[in-house]
Q: What sequence folds into this?
């Protein structure tokens, strides 16, 4: 899956499912500060990612993510590893 498609899907569900202001989403924006999600929201996000991309993100994955770019890259890498 192309990176641009991943970004479009992720941004779409963040805006529609998690009510994130699309203007606040940028590659270098701080993921946790921008999203302001609680622990239950992160569980919901894992489910949405799995249903959209067929990959699972764990707690360790989220700990390594600082920016939206990190988020997209993590998903991209998980998809690539699954398809390898």
A:
């Amino acid at each position: 899956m192309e990176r641009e498609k991943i970004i479009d899907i992720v941004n779409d569900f963040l805006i529609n499912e998690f009510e994130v202001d699309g203007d606040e989403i940028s590659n270098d924006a701080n993921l946790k500060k921008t999203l302001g999600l609680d622990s239950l929201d992160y569980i919901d996000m894992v489910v949405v990612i799995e249903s959209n991309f067929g990959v699972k993100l764990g707690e360790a994955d989220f700990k390594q993510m600082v920016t939206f770019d990190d988020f997209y890259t993590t998903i991209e890498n998980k998809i690539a590893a699954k398809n390898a």
User: Anything to note?
Assistant: The two ends are 13 Å apart (CA to CA). The domain at 3-83 is CATH 1.10.1200.10 (Non-ribosomal Peptide Synthetase Peptidyl Carrier Protein; Chain A). Residues 10 and 72 are 8 Å apart (CA to CA).
